[in-house]
Specification:
The protein is an alpha/beta fold and about 210 residues long. It has 2 domains: about 5-90 and about 180-214, Periplasmic binding protein-like II (D-Maltodextrin-Binding Protein, domain 2, 3-Layer(aba) Sandwich), CATH 3.40.190.10; about 95-180, Periplasmic binding protein-like II (D-Maltodextrin-Binding Protein, domain 2, 3-Layer(aba) Sandwich). Helix content is about 30%, strand content about 30%. The chain has helices at about 15-25, 55-60, 75-80, 120-130, 165-170, 195-214, and strands at about 5-10, 40, 45-50, 70, 85-90, 95-100, 115-120, 135-140, 155-160, 170-180, 185-190. The chain is elongated and about 60 Å long. It binds phosphoribosyl ATP and zinc ion (ZN). Phosphoribosyl ATP binds near residues 55, 92, 159 and 161. One of its GO terms (cellular component) is cytoplasm.
Length: about 210
């Protein structure tokens, strides 16, 4: 028997962490999750888990520092790394949407022509604008995007939405979802047959867990 382990990258802390750990547990995989640990090994499955910032996961998987990762589709498609999306995981559901001030009237994407849009997702917003033949100014900001219109920094924002209450509390209305997102399993494009065999076992368990929930 080989002692090869598949290396999985998951979010260290944040919205996807607990659900990622729970999914592994439901797959019958035991991982000790020491606080402040960078990595951990499963005791009963050939898996090593790396705890990382979600934004870094696509790069680590492309570079084969990790073989697979659990990460939001929003991050996968924003980063445009050469990795494969293998399986939807059913948690971390949200949408990336354009939002504008409550009083304003949005009838189509043409509303955005010549406007300033604040976002942490410049690549996905640019794709959306191009697809709609619109020219607008994108202001990339890393957090608290929803306050941008209120302080005069932007005419519109593009941010993740789940319940909608953040938008509501900031006097904004969601007008255009541009991407539906959830956590997915991604993999490096060049797994060895041995690594792929371990992944297939993991996928079989993940699919069983998903089926049991339906
Ligand atoms: O530290 P690290 O870089 O790893 O974490 P992070 O702060 O970048 O990400 P984190 O933990 O906030 O989110 C991780 C992932 O969770 C995202 O990339 C999405 O794939 C997913 N996800 C699901 C969400 C949400 N739902 C969500 N609602 N990520 C963020 N939000 C934020 C949103 O940005 C806005 O500020 O929640 C607010 C809106 O929520 P509602 O319910 O008020 O609409
Ligand atoms: Zn992040």
């Amino acid at each position: 028997m080989s002692n090869m382990k598949l290396r999985l990258a998951i979010q260290k802390s944040g919205r996807l962490h607990d659900d990622s750990m729970r999914l592994l547990k439901e797959c019958g995989i035991d991982i000790s999750n020491g606080v402040n640990k960078l990595k951990s090994e499963a005791s009963n499955f050939p898996l090593e888990v790396f705890f990382l910032r979600d934004d870094d996961i696509p790069q680590y998987v492309e570079d084969a520092v990790a073989d697979i990762g659990f990460v939001g589709e929003n991050v996968v498609y924003e980063k445009k790394k050469k990795i494969d999306v293998v399986e939807k995981l059913g948690f971390g559901k949200c949408r990336l949407s354009i939002a504008i001030s409550k009083g304003e009237n949005y009838t189509s994407a043409a509303f955005l022509q010549g406007k300033r849009i604040a976002t942490s997702y410049p690549v996905l917003v640019e794709d959306f604008l191009k697809a709609n033949n619109i020219t607008a100014e994108i202001h990339e900001i890393s957090g608290s995007v929803e306050i941008a219109p209120g302080i005069g920094l932007a005419d519109a924002i593009c941010d993740l939405v789940s319940s909608g209450s953040t938008l509501f509390m900031n006097g904004l209305q969601e007008v255009e979802p541009i991407l539906q997102s959830q956590a997915v399993l991604v993999k490096n494009e060049q797994l060895s047959p041995e690594q792929q065999a371990i992944l297939d076992k993991l996928l079989f368990r993940i699919q069983s867990v998903k089926k049991a929930k339906n």
